[in-house]
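Input chain follows. Return structure tokens only.
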Amino acid sequence: MGDQTKIEKKQPLHRCGWVSNDPTYLAYHDTEWGVPELDSRALFAKLCLDGQQAGLSWLTILKKQQNFENAFHQFNPEKIAVMGESDIERLMQDKGIIRNRLKIASIIRNARGFLSIEQTQPFSEFIWQFTDGRTVINRWEDFKQAPTSTDASKAMSKALKKQGFNFVGETICYAFMQAVGMVNDHEISCHCYERTCELAVK
């Protein structure tokens, strides 16, 4: 027989231990989670979506993200801020989103809070102040080592509530900080770790 060709098996990418095999989750972890976000409106949308997660899995919210965007004017704060009780009643019938009256109302409240903050400073600047405008780079071997809240997330939660936001507790705020790259909590063996370190805001 001729030369034997060695067929090397492609090694699977190592990802953070919290990621399932669901394609939606894989794509989110690989392309979005931990990547620094500096756009004020994108930060507002992500914070609202994190608030919808309370008591549910993040995957549930991810799969409904498009529906939320359609229901809330692509997360345009000006348009959301003028929504009222009739809109809440209408959205309570929308099977594509989380039909929880308090959560629906919270997005409207948060939009008004966003606009209030923007009168004095960009929302992005307000949010990133809690890590001094930079990404905190951690070195966890296991995702379970990461905290569920920090002094920074507690301070963010308190400041947001003062501006009228709700569903922004310290745990939700920390999950938000992880998602938008204010902290890099990818496991050090994760294939995304080095890339998010390079993208970190310094």
